[in-house]
Specification:
Elements: H1 3-16, H2 21-28, H3 42-50, H4 56-76, E1 94-95, E2 111-118, E3 128-135, E4 139-147, E5 152-157, E6 167-170, E7 182-183, H5 184-187, H6 190-193, E8 197-198, E9 205-207, E10 212-221, E11 224-233, E12 245-246, E13 250-253, E14 256-259, E15 272-274, E16 277-282, E17 294-299, E18 305-310, E19 328-329, E20 335-338, E21 354-360, E22 363-371, H7 375-380, E23 390-391, E24 400-404, E25 410-414, E26 420-421, E27 434-436, E28 448-450, E29 453-456, E30 461-469, E31 472-473, E32 479-484, E33 491-495, E34 498-506, E35 510-515, E36 521-524, E37 545-547, E38 550-554, E39 558-564, E40 573-578, E41 584-586, E42 590-599, E43 608-615, E44 624-632, E45 640-648, E46 656-663, E47 679-689, E48 693-698, E49 710-719, E50 728-735, E51 745-753, E52 761-769, E53 778-784, E54 800-808
Parallel strand pairs: 1-33, 22-26, 41-47
Antiparallel strand pairs: 2-39, 3-4, 4-5, 5-6, 7-8, 9-10, 10-11, 11-12, 13-14, 15-16, 16-17, 17-18, 19-20, 20-21, 21-22, 23-24, 24-25, 25-27, 28-29, 29-30, 30-31, 30-32, 33-34, 34-35, 35-36, 37-38, 38-39, 40-42, 42-45, 43-44, 43-46, 46-47, 48-49, 49-52, 50-51, 50-53, 53-54
């Protein structure tokens, strides 16, 4: 910044000192151009805030100048392009050129919502980004591109809160008169997705060499659904290469021709640019109907079709939808996709499979594939493969890729020999490099690769980080987060192998950031006071994208921009001391805590609440909240507040050893210069005791069982914990292994177990009935105590015991 700019900033800061401290907090909560924020209306706060200044016009000018200089500084840092779904064709989902955002500044004090840019429909695919674009008639800008379900494409200045786009193109301009977006009722996909119309669904792709943005749009014309491939100039939004091209396709196998039917198809996966072609995948509208999995190849210059493949020739289903994840490509130009449920036939009809396709001239053909051994079970249970395929960097050993699906099983594949189907496998896929059953949460997003680590998100599951070593994922995971709600796709920003941050949308509600090494939470969009950073309603499986210090999230009617905030001095609440807990406590018991809160910031802190936790580490992430809190009054700079409160260990706290944490400003009502130093851990630890139910004995099953038949079981349950266990229920299973898995078969019949004191046992008999649909095979009998999970135990993994012998059917 030049000397004139520095002087202007200094004058603006001096002017800000004339505001009251609460006005400083309010100003901090407002995006750079206040007129476009939805949380705080500009006319209301401006008049109140600037009333404390002697010259409104001067302060207004200096404030605008300060923000202008701030955005200019960010503009100079621009260096990263986002031209395809999740950064690259390997779908690593990692931006390793991020120099602005770091774990130290991504917090609700320094980072937040900068702009809300309105658009005319749902944003389903994620935005794309190009730095230093010479926009026709508008000069050079860093540009973020976003497409909507109303068939519109917007180009916004990524460094401005100006709600007017640099250009906007309506696809209807390049469609017949009367064309509209497709009503959601026509495509029958509004029930699950809540979409109101269907237009541009997938993430487009940009060719930075030719300056072309490719997209697929659906229109509704005279009662017909039409798909077209468009090629727009990134500098103007005008159509290129004589486009658009109407999409149509046929595929012939063994004399049977399959025809692409627009009404039943949806281009959900992001587009792929590889081999001089645009690859487009299609599948279900939402819940199958008559859809088919298709991959089509179009010449990127002529827009002519040069290849077509369907995963279900002559039949239906095997959709390629991937939650919107783009098709993948390796360094040799091979294309990879995952398919969903359908009518499987080895080698031809490949539902529940990972596909490898190869472009040869003007044809696209299947060259390899993998199908899980239990594909029929996965198909029947709607546990399809539904993410993008992660292409791992080359290393010692085979060239590898990772796939997964709704079940959460991780498949590590050799790209040169993917394994096809192991028809005689019954418990796992032994022909592939590695398989980790339920290694990720259900409904996991596409895996993320960074710094020799692979990350997996999941629905109602922690984020798991697995180290990659000698061509395999190391078990157990190297790190895991607290349990998260969302099952969407994550990304990572980093500066090379440092300053890694994992970003994702948690439960379609909040933008979430974690330290990529520790998986500790850094920021969520619901932390800041007064709803400053909250996200509006999002589209189904929305995903963020980040570049050059900004994070972009498309919503149902806007593009939200997050980044570093310019702000004034603030308070900073810390816990300076906390007493040690007792050596041992039981679930539900209480004890006293004394703590001291201090404001080490430069401005007064409003009244706040201190809460208390039990944590296995000295940090709050993943900690168990205790019942009980303490009200802390308003504190001037350097002032302290001490007090004593009784806290209660909530029922269900797992047995183990914990630190006691006292955390100031629990409800985050006080904007602070540092939101990461609010907690202090005790010097000593407390041991929490609880019940633990195990099966110590179970009788052996008969040598053979008959579907629909019955037999008797005797088992013994013991409470090996240190607290009384409530009444529970034992249930029984047939399992191909000695442990309970998702494929274990529940038998009809159970046994009621009374409340058990520590060391007490309960033995009894139960009559069970074998399901009439029992598949042929050899099974262990399992007795599983507290199978309905009524008792919170110190160990929930030791409830089952297998018989010594097996039974067959």
């Amino acid at each position: 910044m030049d000397q004139g700019g520095k002087q202007a900033v200094k004058m603006a800061r001096l002017s800000c000192h004339r505001f009251r401290s609460n006005e400083m907090r309010l100003a901090r909560n407002v995006a750079p151009t206040c007129e476009i924020t939805t949380e705080l209306a500009a006319p209301k706060w401006r008049a109140a805030s600037f009333a404390f200044c002697e010259d409104f016009r001067i302060v207004r000018f200096l404030s605008v100048l300060l923000l202008t200089l701030f955005f200019a500084w960010v503009h100079l840092l621009a260096q990263t392009s986002v031209t395809t779904w999740h950064y690259d064709n390997a779908r690593t989902s990692a931006n390793t050129s991020e120099t602005v955002l770091t774990p130290s500044n991504v917090n609700s004090t320094s980072f937040g919502k900068l702009a809300t840019l309105p658009v005319d429909g749902f944003v389903v695919g994620h935005p794309l980004y190009l730095p230093s674009v010479n926009v026709v008639g508008q000069g050079v800008h860093n540009v973020v591109y976003v497409a909507t379900m109303h068939d519109s494409v917007y180009a916004f200045d990524a460094d401005s809160a100006n709600t007017s786009p640099l250009w906007m193109t309506s696809i209807f301009t390049y469609s017949p008169a009367g064309a509209t977006s497709v009503p959601a009722t026509v495509k029958k996909d509004s029930g699950t997705t809540r979409w109101t119309e269907v237009g541009i669904i997938s993430t487009p792709v940009i060719d930075p060499v030719t300056g072309t943005l490719y997209l697929v749009a659906e229109t509704y014309e005279n009662g017909n659904v039409i798909h077209r491939l468009h090629a727009l100039d990134v500098t103007s939004g005008l159509e290129k290469f004589g486009g658009p091209t109407t999409i149509a396709a046929t595929y012939t196998l063994n004399g049977v021709t399959t025809t692409f039917v627009d009404l039943y198809q949806m281009n959900r996966p992001g587009l792929l640019l590889a081999n001089g072609h645009i690859y487009i995948a299609f599948g279900s509208n939402c819940c199958n109907a008559y859809s088919q999995g298709w991959v089509l190849a179009y010449n990127a210059t002529t827009l002519q079709q040069e290849g077509a493949y369907t995963a279900e020739p002559g039949k239906i289903l095997a959709s390629i939808w991937q939650k919107g994840a783009g098709l993948s490509a390796d360094g040799d130009g091979n294309i990879y996709a995952e398919t969903s449920e359908g009518f499987y036939a080895v080698g031809t009809n490949l539902s529940i499979s990972v596909l490898k396709l190869t472009q040869t001239g003007t044809s696209l053909a299947l060259t390899d594939w993998f199908t899980p051994y239990n594909h029929q079970y996965l198909s029947d249970k709607d546990l399809d493969l539904n993410d993008g395929v992660l292409i791992l960097p080359d290393q010692l050993g085979p060239h590898e890729a990772i796939a997964e699906g709704k079940e959460g099983t991780i498949y590590l594949l050799d790209r040169e020999s993917m394994g096809h189907l192991c028809s005689n496998c019954t418990t796992g896929d032994t022909q592939i490099v590695q398989e980790i059953p339920q290694g990720a949460g259900r409904q996991s997003g596409t895996p993320v690769y960074w710094n020799n680590t692979v990350y997996f998100t999941g629905q109602s599951s922690p984020v798991f980080a697995y180290t990659l070593s000698n061509g395999a994922l190391v078990i157990p995971p190297s790190a895991q987060s607290i349990k998260m709600g969302g099952g969407g796709h994550a990304i990572i920003t980093a500066n090379g192998n440092s300053n890694g941050i994992l970003w994702f949308i948690n439960g379609n509600k909040n933008l979430w950031a974690m330290d990529a090494i520790t998986l500790q939470t850094l920021y969520t969009s619901n932390q800041a006071a007064n709803g400053r950073d909250t996200l509006p309603a999002l589209a189904h499986f929305a995903t963020p994208i980040a570049a050059d210090g900004k994070v972009f999230v498309g919503t149902q009617n806007s593009l939200i921009v997050y980044g570093l905030l310019p702000h004034a001095g603030l308070p900073d609440l810390t816990e300076s001391s906390v007493t040690n807990p007792p050596a041992t406590v039981l679930d539900g018991s209480s004890f006293s805590v004394t703590d001291t809160v201090q404001n080490i910031g430069s401005a007064p802190a409003a009244a706040s609440i201190t809460r208390y936790y039990l944590s296995t580490t000295t940090s709050k992430s993943g900690a168990r909240l205790l019942t009980g809190s303490r009200a802390v009054p308003s504190l001037a700079p350097s002032a302290t507040s001490s007090g004593t409160v009784t806290v209660t260990v909530s029922a269900g706290t797992a047995g183990g050893t914990y630190f006691l944490l006292a955390c100031g400003d629990y409800t985050l009502v006080v904007p602070e210069t540092n939101e990461s130093n609010n907690c202090k851990a005790s010097a000593t630890q407390v041991t929490v005791s609880g019940p633990d139910l195990v099966e110590t004995a179970v009788s052996d099953p008969p040598n053979t069982v008959t579907p629909g038949g019955t037999f008797s079981i005797t088992d013994t349950v013991q409470n090996i914990g240190n607290a009384t266990a409530a009444a529970s229920t034992t249930r029984y299973y047939l399992s191909t292994t000695t442990s309970k898995t998702v494929s274990s078969i529940l038998l009809t019949g159970s046994r009621s177990v009374p409340s058990l004191a520590p060391a007490a046992t309960s033995s009894g008999n139960a009559s069970v009935t074998v399901p009439s649909t029992l598949p042929s095979g050899t099974y262990f009998l399992l007795a599983c105590s507290d199978d309905t999970k009524l008792v919170s135990e110190t160990n929930e993994t030791n409830n089952c015991k297998a018989s010594a012998t097996t039974t067959t059917h």
